[in-house]
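Archive maintenance. Older records in this collection stored only the sequence; we are now back-filling the structure field for every entry so that each record is complete. The fields below show one back-filled record exactly as it appears after the update. Entries are processed alphabetically, and Polypeptide N-acetylgalactosaminyltransferase is next in the queue.

ARCHIVE ENTRY
Title: Polypeptide N-acetylgalactosaminyltransferase
Organism field: Ranitomeya imitator
Length field: 436
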Amino acid sequence: MFLDHLKEQLERHISGLKKVRLIRANKREGLVRARLLGATKATGEVLTFLDCHCECHEGWLEPLMERIREKETAVVCPVIDVIDWNTFQYLGNSGEPQIGGLDWRLVFTWHVVPEREQKRRRSAIDVISSPTMAGGLFSIWQCGGTLEVHPCSHVGHVFPKQAPYSRSKALANSVRAAEVWMDEYKELYYHRNPHARLEPYGDVTERIELRNKLQCKPFKWFLENVYPELHVPEDTPGYFGMLRNKGMANFCFDYNPPNENDVTGQKIILYPCHGMGQNQFFEYSSFNEIRYNTRQPEGCIAIDQGSDQLTMFLCRENGQNVPENQKFIFREGKHRVTKRGPALSNPMFTLVTGIVGRWRAVCVTALQRPNSNAATIDIVVCIAAASLSVKDGTLLHQQTQKCVQAEKNPNMGNAAPVLRPCSNSDLQKWFFQERN
Ligand SMILES: [Mn+2]
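Back-filled structure field:
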């Protein structure tokens, strides 16, 4: 009853149109399988895909066709205008079109056309190179194609508030994309989504064979040549994951951005560590930033002037300097470490006394074997000591010279990290952990 218009009514309507065929699936297939079904039945030279909740603007098709004729390896998208979810009003998009990107959760993102691309274009009606297309597709680039947005082609689209069907395969699909296309960079995805490592993603052998057969380029090439705006995290071991407190055991840095389109402005809180990455994923960079980089653009923790609370700001652009209020020193103190070991079990103890590397070793009780050459000595035990750099775990905010401290109730609300004068308290000791 509710969907009657998709039955006979639809058939009747379409039977009056030239060139249009209605192909029905036997069951609800979802977006991508429906597209593939259509593609297998299509007979034309060019495939065009539209969602069912689209409305094409006048003259939308010609610019796309023209570009494909000019360059047959180009995959061209229209500018996607918004159709209001409540009223179905067509809201044009007057500004510069946006292009597609992705973040390290492999979630599709929109962003403005970068300067280098504006410079490359010869006119306002020239196509715009886009790292990904809506949905997040990117591998076309690696295999010799291009993804482009044509500013002269406009199609309206209702952005659904949520998918109308279960998307239980979404995680497995992301994992497949990471496994087939991202080479070693897939680790950056897994660090931010530890549960994805456990997801059964089926067999990707055929997809890898296809990639090899088509001689597709490495993901590194894509990052450097197509998407240099995407910041590639360093993810140095020991400096990413959950940021846990030592005094308030089991409490971690946690951040909830205000919405999907804006990462900034909220305060960092402390919440029981869940080990799922996402909101509790942070990375300490070699530039002394604490980055919240599960999303694009990336957030960096900062201190608002005069405040003792930690707030999310945008990180600098690649190549720019780190703002002073975003610099935190994860302090490393010199600690004296001693080791005691049986002689000769470790090459560092082969000296009777002396310095090996940064170890100063003293070996005691040298015995002479009864029946051996007089020159041979066995060393029984060695004690070695060294001053090693070990993380002491305090996070010093450089500008204010205060330390980040965990507090239960700093502001009548959630537990949160706040700036306090540095002390030796365990509440000021922090450490990164990849997962629980
Ligand atoms: Mn859609």
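Update note: The chain is about 15% helix and 30% strand. Residues 343-351 have pLDDT under 50 and may be disordered.
Entry marked complete.
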